[in-house]
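Worked problem 6 (solution included).
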Amino acid sequence: MDDARARLLVIAFRHSINEPNIEAGFERLRGLAGGSLQYDAFRDALDACLREGLIREPVRLPEGALQCHWRLELTPAGVAAARALADPA
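Solution. The predicted structure is:
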């Protein structure tokens, strides 16, 4: 697993990421990653995690909401992968 994908999973496991759009979501993740995450790597990591079923679709329109928001949420498979990365014992 590449570094950006691993960081994305571990950060999503440890922090609640719920932002108004992808740009704000990226900035939040980048801050949690110590400023070292690049946008292209972030986008590629998101795509890979979606394809592998490790995260849920991040763009949501909650019931009764007037606009979409962006949320990074792990699936059960993503939680297992993040746990293995966070505690590789």
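Discussion: The first helix runs from residue 3 to 14.
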